[in-house]
Amino acid sequence: MKAAKRLSLPAEQEAVTALPRARAGGLDGVLRVALPIIVLGVGLAVWELVVRGFAPDHSTIQVEHEAIPGFMPAMTMPFIAREEKEIANLQIGDAISFRLNVTQRDSWIDQVRKIDANQLHLPIPKPGPAADAETTARNRLREGDVMPVFELRDQDGKPVVLDTFRDHPFVITFIFTRCPLPNFCPRMSQNFAELQKAIRASTGLSATTRLLSISFDPQFDTPEVLKQYAKYAGADPAIWSFATGDAKEIQRLTSGFSVLVERESSTINHGLATALINREGKIVRIWRGNVWTPAEVMAAIEGR
Predict the structure, then answer these.
(1) Which residues constitute the domain of residue 69?
(2) Is 128 within 8 Å of 52 (Cβ atoms)?
(3) Considering the domain boundaries, does residue 222 fall inside one?
């Protein structure tokens, strides 16, 4: 395996590239990749990855990678190709390499190319248990449903339950604090910071809105960790709380909002969902993924 090599870039765009090894093929139609990395402002070590599939529009590939000490734990997450033609001809089972670019507010891949799978020698992961599709569909929450009761605790260790938000509209989203790529959990927190500003500047019902970020990584995201994260995010506890809780309770909520959270050893595979609940406890809107804007949410709160 090649050692990490420093590139010649401006000081404000310091980057490291590393070439790991992976293997094509495997169970469940997985696509294993080797990844040369360029990350602006961040130095990275070697990665080993598995691409599990593609988004319907074929602009995103789903990649499972190993833990990168000091940057992110092992997880499965999507990577966006700005030039869709770079991944248009890929198929499940191809071995590829690509470059990952990360700025403060965005990330994307480029320089995607196929490589010789014979040089790669990673073990094939064992498949996890299949999800019960019927149970998942039955428990899925939809717009118009009543928000189920829940029991969590916030960054100060205080109880957070549905009645905490009685007579307040509130917005929930799901994150984990170690998620490093700015398109995902960090974007949810940036959006909530903007929502907090809008709530402070509003009047009437909108001014009573509360925000709740729920971590789906309760083993790591203790109240103490969430308190540090909340301080970094600039959260006003009178408006914006962070919560964790019993793993089963977290799983019940993520399943209800169809937020995929899968663990394989230290791997975290996750989706995103954000929801508005009105003061009567009814789910008004659910936004999937990371493309929603604070302006959309404020419009929904105000009934526009």
Answers:
(1) 5-119
(2) no
(3) yes
Q: Are 255 and 148 in contact (CB under 8 A)?
A: no
**The token pair that represents 20 in the structure block:** 């790991």
Instruction: State whether 191 and 105 are in the same domain.
Output: no
Q: What is the dihedral of CA 164, 170, 176, 180, to 10 degrees?
A: -150
Position 258 in a domain: yes
Of 289, 284, 288, 283, the C-alpha closest to 299 is: 284
Whether residue 107 is found in the same domain as residue 219: no
93-148 pLDDT, tens digit per residue, is 677 777 777 777 777 888 887 777 665 554 454 554 555 555 556 679 999 999 99
- Please list, in sequence order, all residues whose beta carbon lies within 8 angstroms of the beta carbon of residue 130, skipping any fewer than 6 positions away: none
Separation in Å, CA 277 to CA 37, 176, 198, 281: 40, 21, 17, 6
Asked whether residue 280 falls in the same domain as residue 212, the answer is: yes
CA 118 from chain centre, in angstroms, equals 32
Same domain, residue pair 182 and 243: yes
